[in-house]
C-alpha cells in the first residue's frame, strides 16, 4: 500500500502535469519542420555449444542468440520542432540456426511501439514493449556483455526480454541530474474484469558516468509460468503441472541493480525477487548475481573478461552458478567470444538448469560456448 501511495503521489505531482503538457505541445506544433529518419538494425549471433548433461546426455550443437538474441527491426524518428519528436520501433526475434521466428504467434514480439518525446516534458509510448526490469535493470546483469545462460533460472524476473506487456501505455520523465523515472500500464481489455490480464510496471535508473543504479517493480495478472520444465516440480499451490503450466493470479517482480566503474574494472550486482500467487498462497524465487567485467585492452573496450557468480532459490531448491567469458571486439559491431559455466543444484528433486538450455538429469551441469556476433 505504501508503494501504491508513493506512485500515486508522484503521478499526481510530476507525471500527470508533464503528460498533459506533452499533449498540449503536440497540439500546438506545426508540420513545416518535420525531418524523418528511419533505420534498419539488428544482430545475428551463432556459436558452438557443449553441455555435459542435457537431460542425461552430452550435447554438441550450433545454437543462435546465446550471446545476444537474434533480432532485426525498424526504428524511426521525425523532428517536429521545438524539442518534440515522434518515433516508432518495430523489432522481431528469430533463430538464425533454424531460420524461424522466435515467437511464431507474434511477428514483432520484442517491440511494436509508437510515441512522442519532448526534451522538456518526457516521453509517452504506446504499444507492445518489455517492462522496466529489462529496459532499466537488464544491462547491469551478469549476462551483459556475457552469455545468456547467466540469467536466473527460467528468467522469471524478465531481465532478458522474453515477456512483453501488451496494450501498454508508458511515460518516462526527462533525465534530471542523471535520474529518470518511468511508469507503464498494460490494459487487459476485459470489459467484465478490469484486472484480468492487466500488467503494470514502475522503474527508475540513475547514471553519473561511473555509477549506474536501476530498479523496478512489475505486476502481471493471470500470467502462466512453466515451473515444471524449469524446476522439475509437478504440483504448486494445489495446481497439478502434469502437461500444464502454472497459472498465477498475480505474478510480481522486484529487481535492483548497480555497477560502478573503477579504472578498467566494472563490478556489478543485481538482486531480484519473483512472487507467484493464487488463492492457495504464494511461492517465491530469489536471485542474487554479482561479478566484475575487466577491460583487458586498457580502456579501449575491445577485449572484455567477465567473471561472475549467482545464487538462486525456489522453495527448498537452491542453485549456485559460476560463469566466465572473454569477448574480443574486432570492430564496434563485430565480436568473437567464448565462455564456460558450472551449475550446482541442491534440495529435494533438484536438477541443475541454466537459462535457455535443457536441464540436467542430475545436480550439476557444465556448459561451454564459442561464437561470433555481428550487429548492424
TrEMBL record:
Gene3D superfamilies: Porin. GO terms for biological process: monoatomic ion transport. It is a multi-pass membrane protein. Pfam families: Porin_4. One of its GO terms (molecular function) is porin activity. Keywords: Cell outer membrane, Ion transport, Membrane, Porin, Signal, Transmembrane, Transmembrane beta strand, Transport. PROSITE patterns: PROKAR_LIPOPROTEIN. InterPro entries: Gram-neg_bact_OMP (IPR050298), Gram_neg_porin_domain (IPR033900), Porin_dom_sf (IPR023614), Porin_Neis (IPR002299). GO terms for cellular component: cell outer membrane; pore complex. The keyword Cytoplasm does not apply. Coiled coil: none annotated. It is found in: Cell outer membrane. Residues 21-346 form the Porin domain. Residues 1-34 form the signal peptide. Homotrimer. This is Porin.
Amino acid at each position: 500500500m505504501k508503494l501504491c501511495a508513493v506512485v500515486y503521489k508522484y503521478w499526481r505531482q510530476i507525471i500527470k502535469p508533464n503528460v498533459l503538457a506533452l499533449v498540449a505541445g503536440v497540439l500546438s506544433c506545426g508540420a513545416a519542420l518535420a525531418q524523418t529518419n528511419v533505420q534498419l538494425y539488428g544482430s545475428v549471433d551463432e556459436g558452438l555449444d557443449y553441455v555435459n548433461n542435457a537431460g542425461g546426455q552430452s550435447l554438441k550443437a550450433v545454437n543462435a542468440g546465446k550471446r545476444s538474441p537474434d533480432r532485426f527491426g525498424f526504428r524511426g524518428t521525425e523532428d517536429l520542432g521545438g524539442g518534440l519528436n515522434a518515433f516508432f520501433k518495430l523489432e522481431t526475434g528469430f533463430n538464425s540456426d533454424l531460420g524461424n521466428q522466435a515467437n511464431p504467434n507474434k511477428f514483432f514480439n520484442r517491440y511494436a511501439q509508437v510515441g512522442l518525446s519532448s526534451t522538456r516534458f518526457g516521453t509517452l509510448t504506446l504499444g507492445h514493449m518489455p517492462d522496466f526490469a529489462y529496459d532499466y535493470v537488464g544491462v547491469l546483469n551478469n549476462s551483459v556483455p556475457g552469455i545468456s545462460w547467466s540469467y536466473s533460472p527460467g528468467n522469471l524476473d524478465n531481465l532478458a526480454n522474453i515477456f512483453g506487456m501488451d496494450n501498454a501505455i508508458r511515460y518516462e520523465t526527462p533525465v534530471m541530474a542523471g535520474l529518470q523515472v518511468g511508469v507503464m500500464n498494460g490494459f487487459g481489455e476485459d470489459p467484465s474484469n478490469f484486472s484480468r490480464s492487466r500488467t503494470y510496471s514502475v522503474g527508475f535508473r540513475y547514471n553519473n558516468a561511473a555509477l549506474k543504479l536501476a530498479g523496478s517493480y512489475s505486476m502481471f495478472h493471470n500470467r502462466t509460468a512453466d515451473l515444471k520444465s524449469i524446476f522439475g516440480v509437478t504440483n504448486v499451490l494445489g495446481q497439478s503441472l502434469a502437461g500444464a503450466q502454472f497459472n498465477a493470479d498475480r505474478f510480481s517482480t522486484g529487481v535492483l541493480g548497480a555497477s560502478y566503474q573503477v579504472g578498467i574494472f566494472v563490478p556489478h550486482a543485481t538482486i531480484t525477487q519473483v512472487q507467484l500467487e493464487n488463492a492457495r498462497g504464494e511461492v517465491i524465487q530469489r536471485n542474487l548475481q554479482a561479478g566484475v567485467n575487466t577491460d583487458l585492452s586498457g580502456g579501449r573496450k575491445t577485449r572484455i573478461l567477465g567473471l561472475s557468480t549467482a545464487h538462486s532459490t525456489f522453495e527448498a531448491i537452491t542453485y549456485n552458478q559460476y560463469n566466465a567469458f572473454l569477448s574480443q571486439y574486432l570492430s564496434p559491431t563485430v565480436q568473437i567470444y567464448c565462455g564456460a559455466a558450472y551449475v550446482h543444484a541442491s534440495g529435494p528433486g533438484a536438477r541443475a538448469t541454466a537459462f535457455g538450455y535443457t536441464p540436467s538429469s542430475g545436480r550439476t551441469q557444465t556448459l561451454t560456448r564459442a561464437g561470433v556476433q555481428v550487429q548492424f
